[in-house]
Specification:
The chain is an alpha/beta fold. The protein contains 19 helices and 16 strands.
């Protein structure tokens, strides 16, 4: 399927009215639809044409859903198969899902249910195609470029565009984003694409250094400036003359340090500790933060004048969960690097493992994704990574796994707490629905009445979790 061509859907059912209804329903989404009235005719059409989704009944005489699914898996593996079935054949539909069908839809179904399932199948198809495409080109032979930005999502394209515009200037840049989103990679990309690319790049984590140590590291000191100052020491600003200094987690600096950085930005001059003569250098500063500096200014915990001085060209780095289309390319990029580092030749991720990577919430962002791929490479004993090699992603709804995760920052902590709440509520709501339905013979009206909910609200909650009465 290309952007210019509408998805092609084939409906195979021995009831003409069902075929026509499905075509009519799906035509409203601009899908190209065709139908066949028996399995043999359906296979003939499949042999001559390509279809993105096949919707087929289970029982249709000599050639039914089982035979159609088997043929598609062998000859058109990227085609998504949706099984439509009467209540009596649900067990057969479930068995077909185990052998490769995307999902099943019990009769009777609503137009909204059909459209939603076809849409989900097409989304899954894009995942499968992306994974296969990446697997085919996964052999990594190039150098390990530390500043390479991987992905083609609109969000990352915007970041790249902003880098291109600002790189060859001397404008101060502020990188904003959660922990692990790749702020240092972007800083290195800015440096690598600037006229300073052949000069030194220094990265400093302001959150790991004490106030005194940060000041002496940045500005240097003279012999006798403090007890342990046995000799002169040049600071990072002096050593980086002509180059770039990246100051990460600038929110962790004190107002005094911020004041000195503000003066440096205005004059390109600094005063080493214990010295009386200012030094002048030509250094570009790039700042980064994972906190809301504007809120800190309002709370009087960050200097307002310094905030407006560094807020010249802000670049927002989105978390991984907001650019899902980049997850697999990033994972394959790391896989290529790790194959070289560990002497392995893993070709990629199977489709189930790829889905697990895509559906995980990644509170630690790109950094956590790399660690996960590295762990999988170590565990993998074949040429393909499976879900068994992703043990901590094996149950996406496992609250205990989230509880065991150790956040690195306050933003990370907030995201994990949010995920725990969402998953805990989801588990309780699903248990609530299933218990009420089982207690009332799967009669929605009685279940809603017993629980004290309005029937529409009860049904909406069922739809939220994909619970259907005929799926029991």
């Amino acid at each position: 399927m290309t952007e210019k061509q509408s998805p092609r859907i084939l409906i195979i059912d021995d009831e003409l009215q069902i075929c026509r209804n499905c075509c009519r329903i799906l035509s409203k989404n601009a899908y190209q639809t065709e139908y066949a009235l028996d399995g043999r005719a359906g296979l003939e059409m499949l042999g001559k044409n390509h279809y993105d989704v096949v919707i087929t009944d289970v029982r249709m005489g000599q050639v039914g859903g089982t035979e159609i699914l088997k043929w598609i898996r062998e000859n058109r593996p990227e085609t998504m198969v949706i099984i439509i079935t009467g209540y009596a054949s649900i067990s057969s539909a479930v068995d077909l899902m185990k052998t490769g069908a995307f999902d099943y839809l019990p009769k009777p179904f609503t137009p909204e249910e059909l459209r939603r399932m076809v849409s989900e199948a097409l989304e899954q198809q894009q995942v499968v195609r992306q994974n296969r495409r990446l697997m085919e080109g996964s052999r990594f032979t190039g150098p390990l470029v530390s500043h390479q930005l991987v992905g083609n999502s609109p969000q990352i394209r915007k970041v790249v565009e902003m880098i291109q515009k600002v790189a060859d200037t001397d404008a101060t840049v502020l990188l904003c984003g959660e922990s692990g989103t790749g702020k240092e990679l972007v800083a290195r990309a800015i440096h690598a694409n600037s006229s300073r690319h052949d000069k030194v790049f220094f990265g400093v984590d302001c959150g790991t250094l004490s106030v005194g140590l940060l000041e002496s590291e940045l500005f240097g000191y003279r012999k006798g400036a403090f007890t342990d100052a046995k000799k002169d020491k040049a600071g990072i600003f002096e050593l980086a003359d002509g180059g770039t200094v990246f100051l990460d987690e600038i929110s962790n600096t004190t107002p005094d340090i911020q004041g000195k950085l503000l003066r440096f930005l205005d004059t390109q001059e600094f005063l080493p500790l214990g010295d009386t003569t200012h030094r002048r250098v030509n250094v570009r500063l790039i700042f980064a933060t994972n906190r809301d500096l504007k809120q800190m200014v309002a709370e009087k915990t960050f200097r307002e004048d310094f905030y407006y001085r560094i807020f010249v060209y802000p670049i927002y780095l989105p978390p991984v969960r907001e650019r899902k289309s980049d997850i697999l390319p990033i994972a394959y990029h790391f896989l290529g690097q790790l194959n070289i580092q560990r002497g392995k030749s893993i070709s990629g991720f199977d489709d189930e493992a790829a889905n697990r990577l895509l559906n995980y919430h990644w509170p630690g962002n790109v950094r956590q994704l790399r660690n996960t791929v590295e762990r999988a490479v170590i565990l993998c004993e074949t040429d393909t990574i499976t879900v068994q090699d992703l043990p901590h992603l094996s149950d996406l709804g496992d609250i205990e796994r989230l509880i065991e995760y150790v956040p690195e920052t306050n933003e990370d902590l907030i995201q994990v707490k949010k995920q725990i709440r969402q998953k805990a509520v989801a588990r309780v709501e699903k248990n609530f629905l299933l218990h009420a339905l089982e207690q009332n013979g799967w009669n929605i009206s009685r279940a809603a009445r017993q629980t004290g909910m309005q029937r529409p609200n009860f049904q909406n909650l069922m739809k939220k979790y994909g619970i259907r009465v005929s799926a029991r």
